[in-house]
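Table 4 source record.
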Amino acid sequence: MGTNWYKIILKILKVKYGKGLRLKGTPVIFNKKGAQIKIGNNVIIKSSFLSNLVGLYSRTIIVTRSPEAKIVIGDNVGISGATIYARKGIYIGDNTAIGGNCKILDNDFHPIETEERIRLLKDPNGGNAREAIPTKEIYIGKNCFIGCNTIILKGTKLGDNCVVGAGAVVSGNFEDGCIIAGNPAKVIRRNG
């Protein structure tokens, strides 16, 4: 499917995107009715295996899962085979690079309490069990670099100019200019 056809699909899904959107391969983008996905200017989304020589495991997936969810991607952002999945909100600042196969998830996908989890398994429509899924917004600052195969968990706040090492599992608040690595991710030094 060509880029122009896919942009028509984005308009049908009410996904707002700026000038210069480039798609390398076909991403999976789904915007729940009532939710918002906004993609800035000059964004590149890579979704084909050879579009990033890290080797992408899958296409980029950008999904809002509830009517109140928001995904806002700033200008000049690069995304390679990442999953960005919001029930509440994910905000990515300008000039940020998201490396191959990253996962940015503002929720736990399932309730933590056993009874709620069992109830969700018995009733796929979820009822009240879906409301028990822990969810917290994610904020990624400007000029950040997120290394390949990282996981950014709910409630994470990365300041501007942060670097996240490959394979890190990130949760918590990090000030501007932090270099973060490990599982769990910790500040290993500061830029500047």
